[in-house]
Design a protein that fits this description.
- Helix content is 81%, strand content 0%.
- The protein is mainly α and 227 residues long.
- The model is unreliable at 1-20 and 55-59 (pLDDT under 50).
Length: 227
């Protein structure tokens, strides 16, 4: 039996445990190494794609965009300011035509509201935003005084200064006179002669006409830029 056992051929499919582990461990290690080498690339591509998306989604404003936004804001404030001027003018005109003290008082209060809420803040903001817009767009503020060929902006600034000069020289003094006359008319319960004279003051009327004409001229210069 021993002789036969020694002569009996061993099965070819039988391998030792060490051989089996060695045979299967090498492909697994090779596969893991391949996956480890390939894994960073998709992740890097994802990170790069996300970085590109985030950078493209950011909105960056350059000088042209800022200039356009400032110009749009300047135009909106100009509408606000001109609307206040027209509202105040219409309220004052209706007050001059009325003979009822309550109506005159209400219309004068409406004109004052237009002045406080629209005209005064609008006049200040339209100047500041207008200067910022001109600087962003590269327009010369002082025209020929700084060696430039364009002078429409300089003329607009001169007209604006002229309008502003009417406030301490005309509107404030006549406004104090008008307020005193309106107070006395309220106490009397009727439209007094003093109030009528204040409502029809020629100096104030011409100052308001000059104000409207100057504003119209500035609008024309801003739109046409003729020189």
């Amino acid at each position: 039996m021993s002789t036969l056992a020694g002569q009996w051929p061993q099965p070819t499919h039988c391998v030792t445990r060490t051989t089996w582990r060695t045979a299967h461990k090498a492909p697994v290690q090779a596969e893991r190494a391949t996956l480890a080498n390939l894994a960073p690339y998709p992740q890097a591509q994802v990170r790069e794609s996300r970085a590109l998306q985030s950078s493209s989604s950011r909105v960056t404003l350059g000088m042209p965009e800022l200039a356009n936004i400032s110009k749009l804001l300047h135009v909106a404030i100009a509408f606000w300011f001109v609307g206040g001027l027209l509202g105040r003018t219409l309220a004052q005109r209706q007050a001059r035509r009325s003979e009822e003290i309550m109506v005159v008082d209400a219309l004068c209060g409406l004109a004052g509201a237009f002045d406080r809420l629209l005209v005064i803040p609008g006049a200040q903001l339209v100047l500041v935003v207008g200067i910022v817009t001109a600087l962003l767009q590269g327009y010369p503020l002082l025209g020929f005084l700084q060696g430039a060929q364009s002078n429409w902006l300089l003329v607009s600034l001169v007209l604006y200064v002229g309008i502003t000069a009417l406030v301490p020289t005309v509107f404030l003094p006549t406004g104090r006179t008008f307020d005193a006359a309106l107070t006395k008319a309220r106490e009397a319960g009727r439209v007094t002669g003093e109030l009528t004279a204040a409502l029809h003051d020629r100096r104030t009327a011409w100052a308001h006409r000059g104000e409207l004409a100057a504003v119209a001229a500035i609008i024309v210069l801003m739109v046409l830029k003729p020189f």
